[in-house]
Amino acid sequence: MAVQPSDARRPAQTRPALAGADPELAALVDAEERLQADTLRLIPSENYVSAAVLEASGTVLQNKYSEGYPGKRYYEGQQVIDQVETLAVERAKALFGMDHANVQPYSGSPANLAVYMAFLEPGDTVLGMSLPMGGHLTHGWGVSATGTWFRGVRYGVRRDTGRIDLDEVRDLARAERPKLIFCGGTAVPRVIDFAGFAEIAREVGAVLVADVAHIAGLIAGGAHPSPAPYADVVSTTTHKTLRGPRGAMLLTRAEHARAVDRAVFPGLQGGPHNQTTAAIAVALKEAAGADFAAYAHQVVANARALGEELAARGFDLVSGGTDNHLLLADLTGKGVSGKVAAKALDRAGIVVNYNTVPYDPRKPFDPSGIRIGTPALTSRGIPSSEMGAVAQWIDLVVDAARTGDESTVSKVREEVRTMMDAYPAPGLPLA
Ligand SMILES: *Cc1c(COP(=O)(O)O)cnc(C)c1O
């Protein structure tokens, strides 16, 4: 990525200390900023945080050690840190309607590992969605610690509908008697039936974990049903649709608070990342506002509109469309693999990831699909009326990937840049 002449002064202006101490690194941050400003970012797990979240995550809270929890620390000097963490905890509980919140997990994967530590012994059985069907590694998949230290059994989606079949989940749960059941995933374009999963978990005596990492912001904004009435534990990252810093939270019913807290610390972690806790608190405040509810609904409206525009251009969408922020397109009928398409789209300034589709005959490293999401473009204020143009670009570039037509890729790259200039991204001084 060429750094444009006008950018040369920027690091010194916005990050003077960094530019002075380490110009090489400062230039890289600047280049990443430029990339985020002028590409169309469609990775469903990514977003743009606000300038306020960005500022909170770069503070002197970084300098504090505070093992333990507010009022119960192993270090002195917690007069302020205790208040910061309490603010984040109280906001999390209020926003998601759960009894208890732990805001210390370093990220979504360690948060999920803490859930295993809280409820399972090594070798115990966990029921989760299969990774290539849309689940997450930490839901008991083989290469993950959760699938090697525990016995993972997996449900998927139906071949004919592309949707989770709760009858299959119930049959598996009855046969395998898992202690833990995960619902939620990373490539699930449809509403998660928390009530249905809760009924199954109750029947077999399992703890139900709703892993809402992808959809937490939609839940906060009222654009996806809440798991609060149904789940024993809600696990979420804070950096996807929730638009916070990279981090995670575990929300629980009162009866599980102690087990989950002890699993996070001292079970798995040492000192919490207080600068992240502060930024989570800011993001939770933002997510409680009316603007955020409008944002969450617009994310879904944009995904629906983009899905319809893609379907009209012959794209085969898993489950036929979407209820949330993401689309999974099977490119088999387009004559290219997901990886070839994703790389061509990246050259055109459209950033997606290649992804397996359910029952994918291809290998995970070069699968049949691409995964497309609208959280980041919606954060830029791009409206549904632009989804036709976005779908058209995707169609042109996927076809260009098949035919090797790089001039079309370059032409789309310029058009993408022009649209991005019209919709400045939050948190980017360049925009
Ligand atoms: C992203 C995600 C995670 C893991 O989060 P990391 O912060 O990447 O460790 C866990 N579960 C689900 C469903 C996710 O989408």
Automatic annotation (TrEMBL):
One of its GO terms (molecular function) is glycine hydroxymethyltransferase activity. Its EC number is 2.1.2.1. Keywords: Amino-acid biosynthesis, Cytoplasm, One-carbon metabolism, Pyridoxal phosphate, Transferase. Its main location: cytoplasm. The modification N6-(pyridoxal phosphate)lysine is found at K240. Gene3D superfamilies: Aspartate Aminotransferase, domain 1, Type I PLP-dependent aspartate aminotransferase-like (Major domain). Pfam families: SHMT. It is found in: Cytoplasm. Coiled coil: none annotated. It catalyses: (6R)-5,10-methylene-5,6,7,8-tetrahydrofolate + glycine + H2O = (6S)-5,6,7,8-tetrahydrofolate + L-serine. Pathway: Amino-acid biosynthesis; glycine biosynthesis; glycine from L-serine: step 1/1; One-carbon metabolism; tetrahydrofolate interconversion. The record marks H239 as: Plays an important role in substrate specificity. Its cofactor is pyridoxal 5'-phosphate. PROSITE patterns: SHMT. Residues 20-394 form the Serine hydroxymethyltransferase-like domain. (6S)-5,6,7,8-tetrahydrofolate binds at L131, G135, H136, L137, E255. Homodimer. Belongs to the SHMT family. PANTHER family: SERINE HYDROXYMETHYLTRANSFERASE. Catalyzes the reversible interconversion of serine and glycine with tetrahydrofolate (THF) serving as the one-carbon carrier. This reaction serves as the major source of one-carbon groups required for the biosynthesis of purines, thymidylate, methionine, and other important biomolecules. Also exhibits THF-independent aldolase activity toward beta-hydroxyamino acids, producing glycine and aldehydes, via a retro-aldol mechanism. This is Serine hydroxymethyltransferase. The gene is glyA.
